[in-house]
């Protein structure tokens, strides 16, 4: 492969990722898919419809990733989530912080991007704060705290810490068979929950959940297959083009927001390259804005007052710190990470739900006191 062909393939990967994120932003803007709203509806109203949308997205992504793994296209040890260690404490603490933060900030990072596209200025503030906090947790002061505390805890299995790999090692099954079996077990359970009610089977809810799941799979295919080189012509090593981690990456929004801010701020630095994560952030905003304008729902939105501002600022910090510590957001771990059956993703997703439940209870307490 020549340098020109390599550059052309990299550009193709970036444009494909932009297209997927564009569709993601438009779909969330159109359907109202929201993980924070899903937990809030379940806790406050007893309505599990949007929670079933989230489960459907995770089911489709998990079953689809299982098929990709069975066909040898992409497996968990080749992804961003690959690790021989089960970082359960990082997932637990980070997920809990993220879950609580997404209630304070009126949504997770993906929903924040969508709201920015819909005209929300307060979501723009949250996005900037979350991006700065995320970058600090990747490479700054909170990164030191993270590495010296929660990241030190967790067993090392000696092989990749995902269900399929451990199942293959423990039973003697082939990696392909173990991947399919794990995907069917986990994805099937999620699918059964997702479709358990008549309301959840309405077209709009099926579109929201299944659509997000398909887009997650599309991003896996783009980075894990289209952008995959068995041998990079310059390094002679296996490579995944246009990714920050140099592994296959799926849809996720916390670290990519930090990388997007870094790319903008240091744009003239020749070492800063455009990556899948950066174009994903831009794509979601553009897709959301296009849908909002088409449906005439675009509205400028600001803070209601100082308490509202304060809670959103704190929420933004928790999103950034928690999302990086948990290795992903409610989409990045709750759907994308979960699809790989990585053990840390199960803990992080559960902790995000628990943190969000606490956040909803806290907001109800504020409402009872008349402080909202």
Automatic annotation (TrEMBL):
User: Keywords on this record?
Assistant: Cell inner membrane, Cell membrane, Membrane, Transmembrane, Transmembrane helix, Transport
The UniProt entry, under InterPro entries, shows:
Sulf_transp_TsuA/YedE
One term under GO cellular component: plasma membrane
- Transmembrane intervals: 13-33, 54-74, 86-104, 124-145, 176-197, 204-223, 274-293, 313-335, 341-360
Subcellular localization is given as: Cell inner membrane
Organism per entry? Ramlibacter ginsenosidimutans
Q: What is this protein called?
A: YeeE/YedE family protein
Family that this chain belongs to: Belongs to the TsuA/YedE (TC 9.B.102) family.
Lineage top rank: taxon: Bacteria
- PANTHER family, alphabetically? INNER MEMBRANE PROTEIN YEDE, SULPHUR TRANSPORT DOMAIN-CONTAINING PROTEIN
Q: How does it sit in the membrane?
A: Multi-pass membrane protein
């Amino acid at each position: 492969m020549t340098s020109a062909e390599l550059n052309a393939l990299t550009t193709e990967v970036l444009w494909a990722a932009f297209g997927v994120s564009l569709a993601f932003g438009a779909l969330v803007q159109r359907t109202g898919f929201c993980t924070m709203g899903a937990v809030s509806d379940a806790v406050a109203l007893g309505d599990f419809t949007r929670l079933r949308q989230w489960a459907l997205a995770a089911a489709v992504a998990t079953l689809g990733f299982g098929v990709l793994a069975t066909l040898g296209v992409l497996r968990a040890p080749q992804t961003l989530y690959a690790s021989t260690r089960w970082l359960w404490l990082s997932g637990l603490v980070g997920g809990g912080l993220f879950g609580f933060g997404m209630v304070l900030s009126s949504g997770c990072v993906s929903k924040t991007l969508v709201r920015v596209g819909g005209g929300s200025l307060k979501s723009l503030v949250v996005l900037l704060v979350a991006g700065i906090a995320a970058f600090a947790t990747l490479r700054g002061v909170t990164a030191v705290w993270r590495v010296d505390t929660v990241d030190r805890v967790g067993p090392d299995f000696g092989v990749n810490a995902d269900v399929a790999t451990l199942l293959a090692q423990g039973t003697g099954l082939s990696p392909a068979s173990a991947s399919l079996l794990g995907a069917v077990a986990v994805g099937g359970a999620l699918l059964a929950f997702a479709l358990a009610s008549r309301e959840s089977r309405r077209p709009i809810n099926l579109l929201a959940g299944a659509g997000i799941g398909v887009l997650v799979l599309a991003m896996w295919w783009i980075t894990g297959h289209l952008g995959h080189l068995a041998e990079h012509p310059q390094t002679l090593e296996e490579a995944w083009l246009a990714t920050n981690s140099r592994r296959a990456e799926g849809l996720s929004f916390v670290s990519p927001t930090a990388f997007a801010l870094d790319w903008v701020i240091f744009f003239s630095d020749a070492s800063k390259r455009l990556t899948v994560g950066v174009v994903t952030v831009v794509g979601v905003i553009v897709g959301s804005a296009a849908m909002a304008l088409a449906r005439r729902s675009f509205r400028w939105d600001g803070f209601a007052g100082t308490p509202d501002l304060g809670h959103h600022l704190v929420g933004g910090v928790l999103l950034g710190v928690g999302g990086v510590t948990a290795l992903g957001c409610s989409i990045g771990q709750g759907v994308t990470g979960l699809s790989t059956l990585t053990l840390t993703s199960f803990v992080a997703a559960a902790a995000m739900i628990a943190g969000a439940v606490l956040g909803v209870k806290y907001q109800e307490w504020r409402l009872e006191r008349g402080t909202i």
